[in-house]
């Protein structure tokens, strides 16, 4: 019995139907669960007929589920930005694509400067594709997620008032003509950037739809190009020139929105754990203090407590523009 046969009956049957469509009568030599990426989907490496495939089964739909993710995935795959796509069934939410072995981004030739440049070029290629469908304005989806956090009672009354006021200010001053929106991944964290030893790919397209081109730029800048020098390389590779003052001012607003979005993701996770009393403080550690806490075991990676602390660090970045912890949602 393989791991596929342990799936719930409907998913098991849909998975086998997908594989029959792709590999025909070829014998399946191995089925291996795969981790990686920033996704709730279940992933399996399928070895069959001398080829390696990735079978992806979408996780339980959330209230913020993007209904256009598979359209966006097809466009990205056809452009060679996502791995080759063999099969999609939107009803069963299953896809089969090439399996690509991941190498650490730290091994990218030329180091971080070359990686920042390559990512800027990759974003430019993505934004030049046939435009993804429209879903929701980025400030609106950030506000919806943040409203959910506020309803969880994770924080005591009044603690988040300053954050709410800052979000309202940004939404009131945010300027973007939706007619100029472009194809966007909207979640290009390092976990969703795959290096195969030769080139970069983008994976996990659940959040992909058309939006402000600065969203992806802000996320990559906050997670990988985290110095002025690297950010300049990223911007030049993306735009072909440095950003002007007007674009930098707009990027600051979008960057703040991305920080609040990922804070909301982490707080939503931490809110699922039992808590004796609501949090009464937004005090957050520095990056050095976070590293020391995880090194000594006072903060365990992957726990709700760790996610809560990193969420507070992102809130501090949202409010004051201090350095972020790098959007490492595995913490």
From TrEMBL:
Domain of life: Bacteria
Keywords: Transferase
Keyword Transferase tagged: yes
Annotated InterPro entries: Aminoglycoside_PTrfase (IPR002575), CcrZ_PhaseVar_Mediator (IPR052077), Kinase-like_dom_sf (IPR011009)
A molecular-function term among this protein's GO annotations: transferase activity
Aminoglycoside phosphotransferase domain boundaries: 31-242
Keyword Repressor applies: no
One Pfam family in the UniProt entry: APH
PANTHER family from the UniProt entry: CELL CYCLE REGULATOR CCRZ, PHOSPHOTRANSFERASE YTMP-RELATED
Protein name in UniProt: Phosphotransferase
